[in-house]
Amino acid sequence: MERFSLDAAHLLAGGMVLVSFMMLYQNRILGLLNVFAAHAVVLSLSVAWQAYVQSAPHLFVTAAIALILKAIIIPVALHHMVLRLGVHRDIETVGGIGPTMLMGIGLVALSMVVMLPAAAEADPIAREDLALALSVILLGLLMMVTRQNAISQIVGFMSLENGLVLAATGARGMPLVVEISVAFSVLVAFIVIGVFLFRIRERFDTIDTQALDDFREGRE
Amino acid sequence: MSSFLNMLPFAPIDALLVVPGVAALLLTLIPQYRLGARVNMLASGITFLFALTLLIERPDPTVSFLFVDDLNVVFVVLGTFVGFTTSIFSASYIGHEIEIGRLKPGYIRFYHGMYQALSFSMNLGLTANNVGLMWVAVELATLTTVLMVGLYRTQAALEAAWKYFILGSVGIALALFGTILIYMAARPVIGEGHDAMVWTSLIANAPKFSPELLNVAFVFLMLGYGTKVGLAPLHAWLPDAHAEGPTPISAVLSGLLLNVALYALLRFKMLLAANPLAVAPGPLLVTLGLVSLIFAAFMLYLRRDIKRLFAYSSIEHMGLIAFAFGMGGPLANFAGLLHMTMHSLTKSAIFFAVGQVAQVKGTQKIADIRGLTESHPTLGWSLIVGVAAIAGLPPMGIFTSEFLLVSSTFARQPLLAIPLVIGLLLAFGALIWRLTGIAFGKPSPSVVDAGRHPSMLPLIIHLVLVLIAGLYLPGPLVAWFQNVARMLG
Fold it and tell me: Considering its fold, how many domains does chain B have in total?
């Protein structure tokens, strides 16, 4: 049973890394949103498994938040927003799928090299989970860097936060206050971003952040 | 005094949160600008007074989730003071922005509410006895300032807010990962649950933590909170946010928010320093500090916008402060603390002046601001005094701290002193060069008639304090800072 619970936890965390890779090569926004929803579903399964293994019922709350908020409400809301803005047909230049995937593999290798020896003293579930969580965080960062569309950047940021939740739940007995705060911050971040998107829409008729960059002083 | 404090329904330290929290809610209900500005000033003033009481009496750390020690009380008193003076400046500045129609009156409730929410989150971040809570507070402070930077709704303001939001969130996310790693390191020693995130128990048990985990955690914390400090190469949000938001917010960003992030960084540096096997955090801070200093010094020459100019100057000074704390030791830490205090006071004073300059000249472009001493003597000369202070001319307080830093660096690491002095001289040259153009020569036309008298009081108070600190530091203050410098190791 001990062995199995470990394997299942690693399988789910590894699944999140896999879905992160799938997000990297989505060049249509609606496809990206669907994959993000899948990311959140895997996260919620992983958190629920941790709740069961650690017999920590409060983690089920985190799992439920992940499922309801991140897998359903936010993707649906963003879906509506994309349709309203009429950008769902746009094809995003991802900057070469091959190089991006290679960079992603490099980042995963990096997080394994850094985390596995460093967390050797922590218990094994946490050790592997931390390495995988760091991979998810770095892949989210990579996505934010390679995308120019504001909505894709938001999705990248939220997948990064999913990695944080994975790390926080993997750390046995981490106080609930932090998990709630993570979930809460996602919500707040979402509201803020939503507000910004609408204002950007009012002003520019585009949500391409490249267009915004033209106001930087360096190019005046 | 202390019997009066005992009569209050809540402890003075809780008042640091209660007063701004209640004021934030109240201010969102007040649509009149004048009344709102007064309530804002009043709330900031009361918060400052309560912060002062912490100098006399400290709460018992075991009964509260907040705590006060010699280190954070410096930050709290300085922060609430700058918050108070900025609220006075804000009243006249925002009044003018409404008159000229740059700001819609409807946003005032929002602006004042956010101002107090920022004050709340900064006080929480500085006094929280829990690294998780501290993180939440810094995140909250980021969100409130993002909303205020975007207040003008111009294209440039929205871009600045967006960039600040994205970079700030990524930074804050990395900091959370670092915080989780700290918990992981603490758990085998302290045990599961809440205690493993409480600062006072973390620092007591730090020598027994796993050094490898602490090392990795510190890298994330440094990148995360370092973004908020504005250290190069993570500084990209800072100039935009300073230039495009309302000027009181520029003053608060430079004078307060950068310090809060710096405080978080210092706390974790202390944690690492307490563990003999962990990597020394000093060299990392020294490197980032020097890079920021040299980079910002060169960038100062290229600026065409007056608020951006002083934003880069903030990057330069945060670099200097990070360098000082990275060097460590009683003298460099003392210099770092003094420099941080002086920088907060001077830089917010400069922004008070710059805000008025931009209003009377109707522009932020350096090329269009000429001969200020002739057209507006009081404003022009106070700007000269402020810039002379920030450039490090004697007899102002920044000269004292820079002198201490340079001499202690020469004594211990002469090779590091060379880039330090080069950076200081470069920045000095850039600021004086820009200042002569702004202050002297044939005056450029003003858009506001001379009959308007904005409040010069906060500006003058700050500059006088900086001058006094340069001439004479009171004995108790020196003893206090020396004590904190020893604490920082």
Answer: 1
